[in-house]
Amino acid sequence: MRAATPLGAAWLAILLLAGCVGARHEPPRASQGREIAAIAASLVGARYQFGGADGAGFDCSGLALYVHERVGLAIPRTAAGQERAAHAVPIAQLAPGDLVFFHMRAHSVDHVGIYAGEGRFIHAPRAGAAVGYADLRSGFYARHLASAGRFWGAAAATR
Fold it and tell me: Which of 68, 87, 123, 144 is flagged as catalytic?
């Protein structure tokens, strides 16, 4: 067996370090979901505005539209349209940045939020209430949860 030369040992060390450094970085698409959730979190406290989809205020689907546009993804304008177009995600596999859809007053989807992780989502709930967090695990929203979907990551790559 041949002993490693100092130059060979240096290259080996460089390759090993490059592998370690590279392993810490996520593929760009994998981080899009977290970026979507972070943008939504930055808007907590923004005012509700029916039909709003910009800095002046948001309704639920306008908030989802706005944050997706910030990461370069075009999605439909309405909650029902967003649900139809999204790549379906099982509730048990929700990741930050996924959309969660609700049946609030109708038999069809009429509300949407952005999953933030740990059972919470961010949404523009109604007139008089600012963009904020709500709990998906129990209570009102758990009872009205219809489905979940995704536009980022592998779902975005297949569009």
Answer: 123
Closest by Cα among 98, 112, 1 to 59: 112
> Is residue 144 among the annotated active site residues?
no
Class of domain 29-157 as given by CATH:
alpha beta
pLDDT tens digits, one per residue of 15-40: 333 443 343 444 556 589 999 999 99
Which one from 25, 60, 103, 144 is the annotated catalytic residue? 60
pLDDT tens digit sequence for 105-140: 878 999 999 999 999 999 999 999 999 999 999 999
Reported as half-sphere exposure (CB side, CA atoms, 13 A), residue 133 has a value of: 11
Tokens of 31: 């981080």
